[in-house]
Design a protein that fits this description.
single chain; mainly alpha; 5 strands; disordered C terminus
Amino acid sequence: MQRERILIFIIVMVLLSISIIMIYSTSAIYADSKFGASNFFLKRQILWVIIGVIGFFVCSQIDYHFLRKFSKILLIVSIALLLAVFIPYLGRTAGGAQRWVSLGFFSFQPSEIAKFAVILYLADFLDRKRGEVRSFFKGFLPLCFVLGTVLLLIIIQPDLGTVIAITLVALIMFFIGGIRIAHIVTLLLASIPALYLLIFRVAYRRRRILTFLDPWKDPQGAGFQIIQSFIALGSGGIFGVGLGHSMQKLFYLPEAHTDFIFSILGEELGLIGTLSVVILFVLLTIIGAKIAYYAPDIFGILLASGIVSMIALQSIINISVVTGSVPTKGLPLPFISFGGTNLVLMLCATGILLSIAKQSQRRIVSDPFGKKNNRIVNV
């Protein structure tokens, strides 16, 4: 799978290059106004890119089986960090959400670490317990308890977007890992009342739903950000207004270098630019899915599937939000949006994907029930 590894490397490097260019383009004026330095966010993004790329290469060279030794430890650490955000002077609040742990010289989001911790733990559990995963009490219920603990700590921050992303990735891994469809359906049905309470019984989330249905009902309030996103994307046309010439980043679209960076990319680079980014993510997903399919063992299949699902779903959700296809969720665009924790972990996870591809020369095909088949597939 040497070709696939090279293609993923190229795609990731192109996305990082786009990130650096667009971070400076979207944030320069805002950073100069707020911090007196137009390259304030650019310097930080470059630092995170360097750290992430180092992690990317390190993770691509290690044997991914080595990671399963730390699956439980990483899960426990991530739960502890999720609790740490509520500790006074350690947790940091921004935008009404308490999602960061501050160590003075830098801050990070434990929920981003929890994403990967859940994927690694599920891959390890579903592989180790493959003979019991179809059992409700021995396989399904313990997973629900672990997943529920992590999701509960994230939802009270509050961060419903991350909860939805982790849940979707977990369901995909459940299906691939051989969990009974009836159990998955039962979980989905049981979660409906909780989802209703979380969305329609919480005022600001209810406003988001109403804004999604009709953003022009409150154009200067709840609908302001998404309307500005529409204007940015519409103004770009096919070829864009030109790199650096966006009007919406001039304090119309709030903090455009974060979750809504795709909107400014569409304004400055047009449909050509946005389609290029979408194609890159589609290619990354397809190649990642191929790596998962040809992984040498069940653990590799599950781990690769979780990583690819995480990248793909987060990309889909972010792009869907800025185009008004789904209600607003606070999820960054992988590899492109400003932010250190998400970027570094995404790069490390992609490096692990390359490690799996490196060992995918031969694969034993197993059925969903965990019974090994003797057929060998040569790559």
